[in-house]
Write a structure and sequence with these properties.
single chain; alpha+beta; three-stranded antiparallel β-sheet; 13 helices; 10 strands; binds 6-diazenyl-5-OXO-L-norleucine
Length: about 325
């Protein structure tokens, strides 16, 4: 069994060679400008090692990966009351689907599809101006990653707002059911900006550490969330983190993961490490094509499935 350093280097070298890289998202015009040949991967182990390969220090648009951090903050604010407004079931539908909302009274299936994350943004807006809510999310991510250089890419946020017709439709539709407490454009302002956070694989893996370590920052021992909440966020990532590709990701990789349409994926190996991978080309579900393949290979090399009886021994 290879060491983690060697495994990461091998996977990155293999991914660099591949020509079948998927298609970069173009529905947010700014994302369409990203070079599809990029590939980065970072692992931060609970014992403090930071292992990087490829373009691991180049920032990219984390997009829906940010929904994990927004959810964590919202649970901190309103606790289990969140679940009156957002479900906890896989949707089996694409990330931007509207179909279930009519039958389910404007209550989104889970916090990771766009509709669910817009409700989460609405929760974070309570008592704040959008600017303050956006600042709070950014500062939370900076705190988790222990890196105050992380920024929001305003051009990406503006680009998404300019073309965000589906998200406006979702927000207006939920508003009509009374499941948004603020005006749709305000909740969407928060949502577009947290999706536009730019981070490198290193920064993203650092930010995910608390989820790999029972809710505590492994470097400081400080609690971010309770161990129970960390487990539950992990369960949602496993079941809903890749939309209608979640079952396949769980089957192939076997760890909780959250993807973003910028081509990033945050993977959590409980008790072992936080992993971030980035390759901008997407598969048919809107998840990073090579990112998913890289995590599948890495998980197999390291025996990292959460279903493996000795998972977590190999680092
Ligand atoms: O709302 C959107 O469409 C984007 N801001 C986020 C979608 C996304 O990342 C889907 N993930 N694979």
């Amino acid at each position: 069994m290879p060491e983690l350093e060697q495994a990461l280097a091998e996977v990155a070298a293999e991914m660099a060679e591949r020509t079948d890289r998927g298609d970069v998202a173009t529905y947010i015009p700014q994302l369409g400008k990203v070079d599809p040949r990029k590939f980065g991967i970072a692992a931060v182990t609970n014992d403090g090692r930071v292992i990087l390969a490829g373009d691991a220090d180049q920032a990219f648009s984390i997009q829906s990966v940010s929904k994990v951090f927004a959810l964590t903050l919202a649970l901190g604010k309103v606790g289990d009351a969140l679940w009156h407004r957002v479900g906890r079931e896989p949707s089996g539908n694409p990330f931007n689907s509207i179909v279930q909302l009519e039958h389910e009274n404007g209550i989104p299936r889970n916090p990771f599809i766009n509709a669910g994350a817009i409700v989460v943004s609405d929760v974070l807006l309570a008592g704040h101006q959008p600017r303050e809510a956006i600042g709070e999310i950014l500062r939370f991510v900076q705190f988790l990653a222990d890196d105050d250089t992380i920024i929001i890419d305003r051009e990406v946020a503006a680009s998404e707002r300019a073309t965000g017709y589906r998200n406006f439709a979702l927000a207006n539709y939920m508003k009509s059911f009374g499941n948004l407490h603020h005006e749709p454009e305000l909740a969407l302002g928060v949502y577009f900006h947290h999706c536009a956070i730019a981070m490198s694989c290193r920064q993203l893996a650092m930010a995910g550490r608390f989820l790999a370590n029972g809710g505590r920052n492994p470097a400081t021992g400080h609690s971010v969330v309770s161990a129970e909440r960390a487990r539950r966020i992990g369960a949602l990532m496993l079941t809903c983190g890749h939309y209608d590709g979640s079952g396949d990701f769980a089957f192939r990789v076997g760890i909780p993961g959250k993807s973003g349409v910028g081509g990033g994926i945050l993977g959590i190996v409980p008790g072992v490490a936080s992993i971030a991978v980035w390759s901008p080309g997407l598969n048919e579900y809107g998840n990073s094509k090579l990112g998913s393949i890289a995590l599948e290979k890495l998980a197999r090399m390291m025996n990292w499935s959460i279903f493996a009886p000795d998972a977590g021994r190999r680092q």
